[in-house]
Amino acid sequence: MKTRGLSLSLTDQEIRKICLAAGLMARVAWVDQDFSEREESSMTQALMEGWGMSKDEATLIVDMSRYRIMKGLDLSRLSNGFCDCTSMAERKSFLNVLFGIANAADKTSFQEIEEIRSIAKGLQLGHQDFIDAKLTISREDRHGL
To answer: How far apart are CA 67 and CA 59, in angstroms?
Structure first.
């Protein structure tokens, strides 16, 4: 894939997985109808650490997902697609990433927690998987939830 002078040397399957992940991250970041710099930075960092992308590549993916989420991305399609191309362990780990993004800009809001709950259901994860991921955020940063 080549865009903006960057070339991603990934398979189509890897690009699809990354784009689905970025779309889900963007849904969490956009739940309040605003992308903060800290949320974008957290998304970029997640792509760099989780998928070994360069900063420029990760920034490009975040920019594209941010643009697309503002136009509307279907949660079911994102969740089902990500579920189809990941293992259970990857999906459980990904919930921690989503909570990290939710907590990047101040504290994790009720709306962000509920969006992640919906994502967890779409990823065919159990309630305990959701709770385990939620507990990675301190009680103070979860507004006591």
So the answer is: 12
Q: What is the pLDDT of residues 13-52, one digit of tens each?
A: 888 999 999 999 999 999 888 888 999 999 999 999 998 8
- In this structure, CATH architecture of domain 13-142: Orthogonal Bundle (1.10)
User: Where in the chain are the domains?
Assistant: 13-142
Q: How far apart are CA 44 and CA 63, in angstroms?
A: 9
Total-model pTM: 0.88
The predicted pLDDT at position 144 comes to 46
Which residues, 6 or more positions from 40, have their beta carbon under 8 angstroms from its beta carbon?
Answer: 29, 62, 66
Which residues lie closer than 8 Å to 36 by C-beta, 6 or more apart? 29, 104, 105
